[in-house]
Amino acid sequence: MTSAGTYTPEPGAAPLPRMIAAQAALETRMLLRNGEQLLLTVVIPTLLLVLFSSVDVVDTGAGKAVDFLAPGILALAVMSTAFTGQAIATGFERRYGVLKRLASSPLPRWGLMTAKTASVLVTEVLQVVLLTVIALALGWSPHGNPLAVLLLLVLGTAAFSGLGLLMAGTLKAEATLAAANLVFLLLLVGGGVIVPLDKFPPGAQDVLGLLPISALSDGLRDVLQHGAGTPWGDLGILAVWAVAGLAAAGRFFRWE
């Protein structure tokens, strides 16, 4: 206090960008300190990449196994953070009243969602760097346009974030925990991550190819393994899921 009735710093809310940055940093630290989240977002993708690249378990077609697997594991990493991890964490925050209390703070609700999204993106950057280093050490030889890869990752993040927030904001926390893990396991097997989609019956291939994980893994594989241009078809599928998921989350998300 510098004089009677005058305080330094002046009382009041911090600037909005600073509040969002502080909340994003908090969300990221909480995620990195959570052992279960680290298992889901880092350990499992890393083990799958190393195991299936080193042991001939699944027929991944011509060429090195790691060239097929690395793009799919990158897609799995995006799903594990933006969908599974975010859905579970947000679901329990909603259950324990954390979201309700944060909603009454100076940080607006859209600012809280922005901070969560920023935390997801920071985590994904760490995942991509780690998995890329490991894949390169295993002999991965990526090709293609980095901008196309970035666009796929951003749209994939938006799609999975919308679906994760929709699940967390509509189901009970326990139901979200079970459903998110079940979806993770099902899409790990049926989303073209480890098992090529052409191993499934033709009818199933058509349906599975419309899933966001399939579009993301196939798009990344087309660019990074085959050196293709911008995969507009896969980007279109991801864009539809992103718009639908985020719109539904914005419409049906319940804060308590």
Automatic annotation (TrEMBL):
Its main location: membrane. It is a multi-pass membrane protein. It holds the Pfam family ABC2_membrane_3. Keywords: Antibiotic resistance, Membrane, Transmembrane, Transmembrane helix. It comes from the Bacteria. The chain crosses the membrane at residues 38-57, 69-92, 118-141, 147-168, 175-197, 235-253. Residues 32-256 form the ABC transmembrane type-2 domain. It is found in: Membrane. InterPro entries: ABC2_TM (IPR013525), ABC2_TM_bact-type (IPR047817), ABC_2_transport (IPR000412), Nod_factor_ABC_transporter (IPR051784). This is ABC transporter permease. It comes from Streptomyces glomeratus.
